[in-house]
Amino acid sequence: MKGSKKSTVAGSDILIKRKGLSNTGVLLLITVSLFVLLYIISAILFVDSNFTKYSVFFNLINNKAYLLVLALGLTTVLITGSIDISVGGVTGLVSMVIATMLTSEGVSAVWAIPAALGIGIAFGIVQGFLVAYMEIQPFIVTLSGMFFARGMISMINAKSVPITNELFMSWSSAKIYIPFLYNERRNGTRDVAYLTPTAIVALITLIVLIIVLKKTKFGRSLYAIGGNTQSALLMGINVRKTKFLAHVLCGLLAGIGGFLFTLFAPSGNPGNGYGYEIDAISSSVIGGVMLSGGVGLPIGTFFGVLINSLIERVVPLLGIVDASWPRIITSAFLFAFIVLQSIIASASKKGGSKLSLPVWMRPKKGKE
Amino acid sequence: MSLNKNESKSIRLGRNSLIKSLTSSRLTFSLVVLFAVVIQNILTTPSFFNISITNGLISGYIPNILDEASELVIVTLGMTLVTAASGGQDISVGSIMAISASFCGLLLNGPEYRTDVFHSPYLLALLVGVLGGALCGAFNGFLVSGLKIQPMIASLILFTAGRSIAKQITHGQTIYIMNPVYKWLGVQIPGVPIRTSIIVSVVMIIIVVLLVKLTSLGLYVQSVGINGSSARLVGLNARVIKFMAFVISGVLAGVAGLVGSSSVGSVNSGELGLAIEMDAILAVALGGNMLGGGKFSIAGSVIGAYTIQAITTTLYAMSVRADQLNVYKALIIIVIIVASSDVFKERLKTLIRKVFSKNVSVGGLRNEGQ
């Protein structure tokens, strides 16, 4: 009798731990509530800017679709405990290559897609090989990749190249309206919310990545490697191959992100993509991806990108015209979240499940 | 005292001679590269060794390289210490240069964009500039040692935000400091025939070498870099040492920023020290230092920095544009790091063994991948 009672207590203990929020959950909760809070505050502060309209909300996604794809790529490599800071350079390179390609008459815009994907995958394969199989620090490899890409941009073309290709521009300006989401304007017309093709591609990427990370063997081994490489190795996971594939995936997503960016801002410019790596990293980190690896969800990254997009939208409303302020603020957010992660990591190390639920919310244990 | 000395000796002797010979051979490697570049220059430019005096300044091809390398040399000194202590790199040095120069320019010019009147004492402005650098270094150091974030991610924050911050300090514009005194630090002090930037870089090298050799800092940095937890067990405060390495790097980057802005007489936060972090990392790697931390050599880094500048100047002479240089540098750094990586060395060893051993079998080749 006594034995069985004890075992039930122990069992419920485990259950409590399981049911309680993990680090991932806490970070995700903070991100989502931060976004909601920021959105409500800006809706109250800037009534004229119509934050309560559907279209304004959807524009947050439309404007940063490329960033969502870049950040999702970074999420995958960050989960394995690696990093890729070449994504900004790859974005710029892709946009410059597409713009230069399309200046010549005979080239169809369709060719831009394989070009973008090819560049991204090439970067991913080379960097992934150096990181996973040659065991070189990912930061050095991808920093070199970033400078290589930036240098290549100015080798291809040192001047700004506008895109005039009709087919490409029709993709760029296309809007897909969502008929049931609209607000009535004062003059009776409807302000219907819409998504651009870039946003749809980004959202599809998000869904695919959520499924891959949650349901596939590859996705789960990413978490295993990031959590503890040694035990992942002991579990029989091919660590090198998985890391390599994570970098290739990130490269592929950087290529897609570059293509989406070119659709969003149709011109090749030597300054394109400058600093996007920090935007992508901060979106991931704000979204709850831990820089130490093993923790993070794609959906969190989605909210991180929304926060980034919201900052970029709100800062000009505060009367700050200078374009460098959103980056400073994003960096400050990144800093704050890094501090937060550090606190959470040390708290969960010290107190075990303390962080999972506040004391008053926990079910009371039996007195035995 | 004697015990102390014995200990340090035993640490030094404890590292096996193979590694020693390897590192020395890698120092030779950077020297070989330097000589190759010099010979290439001698062949293409006959006036390579010519030195003349123009406007009371020693000028010529070699003094020119020494002058242009001065910022890089100063930054590389700090990068070497950070690399050795933390096993990562401080990629924010270029942005720190911009920030410290902006502070200095703001103090000197006050609210004006272009003036030849100093609004505050020259030395005070220089001091504030260096302090700004130290502050940035302390921020990086806090992130790395206090919050245990990888050094490169920690400095990534300032890497991208730093230039924007510098731009805000200077009201979003390039500041022109027209007072001739401002050029003392980067160009020439009246009556001295050597460019001040060269003098400053040499002084900085001497200070850092003295700091490393006379105090225990060098030994501490090395032992923290080789194994942080065992250094802690011996009683070293690894956190403080890492923090100090970052602060020193920040100070040196601040000095480099002041020299850089002084040599052009203006503060342009978008251009000052642009992409210098790449050069500095390259110089550290070329100088035979382990990028993963631990053993370091100031001499190697300095030679590496001058080599990089010589390569850069040569590429310029071959009419390669500044923004294209990075392609070559990125390739060079990857080649150097791959060549010095453990995996590559092991592969090379097994390959050599296979080539020379007589009973090569197909099965042996198949196992190579493991």
Describe the protein:
The complex is a heterodimer of chains A (368) and B (370). With 368 residues, chain A is mainly alpha-helical. Chain A has one domain: Orthogonal Bundle (ABC transporter involved in vitamin B12 uptake, BtuC). Chain A has helices at residues 2-19, 23-45, 54-63, 65-79, 87-103, 112-133, 138-156, 166-173, 197-215, 217-227, 229-234, 239-264, 276-286, 298-317, 324-351; strands at residues 161-162, 176-184, 190-195, 267-268. In chain A, helix 6 (112-133) runs antiparallel to helix 7, helix 6 (112-133) packs antiparallel against helix 12 and helix 14 runs antiparallel to helix 15 (324-351). Chain B is mostly helical and 370 residues long. In chain B, the strands form 2 sheets. A 3-stranded mixed sheet of chain B has the order 3-4-5. Chain B has a two-stranded antiparallel ribbon with strand order 1-2. In chain B, strand 1 (51-54) and strand 2 form a beta hairpin. The longest helix of chain B has 28 residues, at 17-44. Chain B is globular, with a radius of gyration of 22 Å. At the A-B interface, helix 7, helix 13 and helix 15 of A face helix 6, helix 13 and helix 14 of B.
Which CATH architecture of the largest domain in chain B is right? Orthogonal Bundle
Backbone structural class of chain A: mainly alpha
Radius of gyration of chain A: 23 Å
Give the DSSP E fraction of chain B (strand runs of 2 or more residues).
Answer: under 5%
Instruction: Quickly count the domains of chain B.
Output: 2
Helix/strand structural class of chain B: mainly alpha
Q: How many strand elements of chain A?
A: 4
How would you spell out the order of helices and strands of chain B?
HHEEHHEHHEHHHHEHHHHH
Low-confidence runs of chain B:
1-15, 362-370
- Order of strands in the sheet with most strands of chain A: 1-4
CATH-derived architecture of chain A: Orthogonal Bundle
If you compute it from the alpha carbons, what radius of gyration of chain B comes out, rounded to the nearest whole angstrom? 22 Å
Kindly report how far apart the N and C termini of chain A lie. 13 Å
The largest sheet of chain B, given as strand count, sense and whether it forms a barrel, is:
3 strands, mixed
Mean pLDDT of chain B: 84
Number of helices of chain B: 15
